[in-house]
Structures are given as structure tokens and as C-alpha cells.
Design a protein that fits this description.
Blueprint lengths: L6 H5 L14 E9 L2 E6 L2 E4 L5 E9 L2 E10 L2 E8 L2 E5 L7 E10 L2 E10 L2 E8 L2 E2 L6 E10 L2 E8 L4 E5 L2 E5 L7 E9 L2 E10 L2 E8 L2 E6 L6 E9 L2 E9 L5 E7 L2 E4 L7 E9 L2 E8 L3 E6 L2 E7 L4 E9 L4 H7 L1 E4 L6 E6 L4 E7 L5 E10 L1 E5 L6 E9 L2 E9 L1
Antiparallel strand pairs: 1-2, 1-28, 2-3, 4-5, 5-6, 6-7, 8-9, 9-10, 10-11, 12-13, 13-14, 14-15, 16-17, 17-18, 18-19, 20-21, 21-22, 22-23, 24-25, 25-26, 26-27, 29-30, 30-33, 31-32, 31-34, 34-35
């Protein structure tokens, strides 16, 4: 595989698609590498996290903090790192492995999860770390590439030691997604309404067949099947399923692609190798990251391309979009209290200064699950006991504008 020749291109195969509900003002964070150095771009402006050979493979923004997982070269090997706001919080060098990779990061309350793998000689071992400590229960895993947290449950996608795509739930193997004569890998996992969606690929007769599974059944087989394909990212928003990856044309050139509900769109024209790595949907905007021959870091917004960096080892691997941290939405959010959080049922909303007109609750896929309109008020209680355990977003409309708060239902 052409794109697997460098460590940066290897990381570009794996990314985590996260879910959120976005206000009108958005901040776009992209992780990857510029000239071989770990980089996070915010709205196109780079922040360099390392002076060594390094790369960011996954990032998430939670309560204004930027969590970035990736690798950094040191002591003759590549070792997994977790940066928080640009500062290394955890280094996953166990002193034994030749290399340790981090492919995905997820945050739930005070817990931070990182998924990856350790390499020792010809031995590979999938790893999930919680707050820097390796979790037990993944003995069948050769590599873990994606994390999704639903309520108190932790889902992880990857590949088993028998080379099949798989999903684990809370450390227990949940699904072997494929059994074949070649190689299978699950690169992304998203959970919606207790249904587990997974994206990945299988090797058939020397070619890679890209797939999306719902639970343990194939939902889509993507592409014509004539040329090599690999799926990288998965995102579900308002019932629509987005996947990112690439497909080789008849000349063997890799073309970055985005599929929506099984229908593919070329992002590049096939004149040079290009790969799409991650997809994130914010309202009506679709963001996709990628690379061109590992020397251009690319970001598409609604098919419009921006080159974030160009040079040797420049890649854009992951994208995460948040509501604006400045402006009216931030001012409004600071004037509204939503509690208790986490909650088992009742949610109290208080505002001493602003009159609240409407409250909406969205799930992680962007669906509106609850709408409450009131006479103008400043205090109210919303009953969400009927909702399943998980993370939700409360959108509060006031006389002065809107704000969004994240809550956890236990």
C-alpha cells in the first residue's frame, strides 16, 4: 500500500469521528503534522506541539480543553502521547515495546481514554488506556483504532489477533464483523440508539472492500468492488451516515472520497494520490480532512478545499468542530446554569439575567429529542428520565441568542 510507507501515512489511516451539536459560530480544529511535527490547527492557524518527529492522530475538544493523541519519536522508537492544551499529559512508553501508537482519544467527564497498540518485534497488542493506565480485557486485540462512549459504556473498534474486524464493549469482544481469507479491520465506531455502526474494510482476492456494518451485519459495501478501497472515518448526523476514505482508479491512483448513505463523491481528480481521513458534520457543513502524497495537509468544507500546510510529511488526519468560544454564545452560556450534571432524570435550568424562551435536547447524532417552549421564564425543570443513558446537548434559546450545554444522563 502506497500510503503505508511512512509513519505519518500509517496514522492517516485511522481517525475518530466524534459527534456534537454545533451553534452558528464554530471553531474548526484539525490535527496532523506540518513538516513532520505534531500540529493542531484552529481555524487554519497552526500550533506546534513538538519539535521532534511526531503526529496527531485524533483530537477532541471538551469544555474548552483540547485533547490530542498521537506519537512522538524518541529513544529510537515512536511512542504514544496525549497532549492537553499543547502540554504532554501522558507518555505511553512502557520501556519494553519497540513502538507504541495512539490512534484515538475520547473524553467522558473526568475520564480520558486513548486507544492504540504496542509493537514488540513481530508481536502486536491492542491497548486501551484510561487516564494513562492500561485497561484489561483486550487480549484478542492486535490494534484498537476508534473509541465511542455511550453513557457508561465504552465501545472500541479495531482488529483481532486473528486479523478480523471487531468491536469491543467495556473490554469484552462484542462482534467479530467478518471472517474471510484475507485481512479485516474496523477503523471507526459510532453508537446511536444502542445500534453499533462500524466502518472498516476487508481484503478479498488482494483488494480491499470497504464496508459499513450496523451491529454485526453489513449495511453498505462501498464502491464498485473493482479497485482498492479503504474506509477511514465514520460520522452519523440526523440519520445520515457519512464515511471518508479513498478508492483507487483504473490507473492505481488513490482518490479521496466521501460517501453519504452509501453514495460516493470524489474529492480529488485522481492526478496524484490523495486520501480522506476523517469526517465531521456541523449542521449543514461537512468537514473532511486528508492528505495529498503525504506532503499536503488538506481540509474540505462542503467540497471546498483548503491547504493547511505543504512540505515534507504534511498531513491532516482528524477534525473536531465546536461552538464558538467567543462572542454572544459564550456570554449567554456563562449566564445560564444547567444542573445536576450528571443527572438521573431532572435537569434544572437557571438564569438570573436572561429570559429563556425555548429548550431543546439533542443526542450525539444531532437529532432533536425534546422541545419545550414556555412563556418567558428564568427558571425551569426539564424531565429527561425517559432518555437512555448517554451524553446530550441542551440548546437554550434566550431573548439575546442561543447557548449550548453538554449534559450526561446516567
Amino acid at each position: 500500500m502506497k500510503q503505508k510507507k511512512t509513519f505519518l501515512a500509517l496514522l492517516a489511516l485511522f481517525s475518530l469521528s466524534m459527534s456534537s451539536v454545533i451553534a452558528q459560530t464554530a471553531n474548526v480544529y484539525v490535527g496532523g503534522a506540518a513538516n513532520g511535527k505534531a500540529t493542531v490547527w484552529k481555524n487554519g492557524t497552526p500550533a506546534y506541539l513538538s519539535t521532534r518527529e511526531s503526529c496527531i492522530s485524533s483530537l477532541v475538544v471538551d469544555n474548552g480543553d483540547v485533547y490530542a493523541a498521537g506519537i512522538e519519536y524518541e529513544s529510537g522508537g515512536y511512542f504514544a502521547k496525549l497532549w492537553v492544551n499543547g502540554v504532554i499529559q501522558h507518555s505511553f512508553n512502557n520501556g519494553v515495546a519497540d513502538d507504541v501508537f495512539a490512534f484515538s482519544v475520547a473524553v467522558s467527564g473526568s475520564n480520558v481514554y486513548v486507544a492504540g497498540m504496542e509493537l514488540l518485534g513481530f508481536s502486536v497488542k491492542g491497548k486501551l488506556w484510561k487516564n494513562g493506565i492500561a485497561e484489561t480485557g483486550y487480549s484478542e486485540a492486535a490494534a484498537l483504532y476508534s473509541i465511542f462512549i455511550s453513557g457508561n459504556d465504552v465501545y472500541v473498534a479495531g482488529v483481532t489477533t486473528t486479523a478480523t474486524a471487531a468491536v469491543w464493549k467495556n473490554g469484552t469482544l462484542l462482534y467479530n464483523l467478518a471472517s474471510n481469507d484475507g485481512y479485516g479491520c474496523a477503523t471507526s465506531v459510532v453508537v446511536v440508539d444502542d445500534d453499533v455502526y462500524t466502518a472498516g474494510y476487508e481484503q478479498k482476492s488482494g483488494k480491499y472492500v470497504s464496508k459499513v456494518w450496523k451491529n454485526n451485519k453489513t449495511l453498505y459495501t462501498l464502491g464498485t468492488g473493482s479497485f482498492e478501497k479503504e474506509i477511514i472515518g465514520l460520522y452519523i448526523f440526523n440519520g445520515d451516515i457519512y464515511v471518508s476514505g479513498f478508492e483507487e482508479n483504473e490507473k492505481g491512483t488513490a482518490i479521496a472520497k466521501l460517501w453519504k448513505n452509501g453514495i460516493g463523491t470524489n474529492l480529488t481528480n485522481g492526478t496524484t494520490d490523495s486520501y480522506a481521513s476523517s469526517v465531521f458534520v456541523s449542521g449543514s457543513d461537512v468537514y473532511v480532512t486528508g492528505t495529498e502524497d503525504s506532503n499536503k495537509a488538506l481540509l474540505w468544507k462542503n467540497d471546498v478545499l483548503t491547504t493547511l500546510a505543504s512540505g515534507i510529511n504534511c498531513v491532516a488526519i482528524c477534525v473536531f468542530v465546536t461552538e464558538g468560544e467567543t462572542g454572544m454564545s459564550e456570554i449567554i452560556a456563562k449566564k445560564i446554569s444547567v444542573y445536576p450534571n450528571p443527572t438521573s432524570g431532572e435537569l434544572r435550568i437557571d438564569s438570573e439575567e436572561l429570559r429563556i424562551e425555548k429548550v431543546e435536547i439533542f443526542d450525539m447524532s444531532g437529532r432533536n429529542l425534546l422541545l419545550s417552549t414556555f412563556p418567558i421564564f428564568q427558571h425551569t425543570t426539564i424531565d429527561i428520565s425517559q432518555l437512555s443513558a448517554g451524553t446530550y446537548f441542551v440548546k437554550i434559546t434566550t431573548e439575546s441568542g442561543e447557548a449550548i450545554k453538554k449534559v450526561i444522563k446516567e
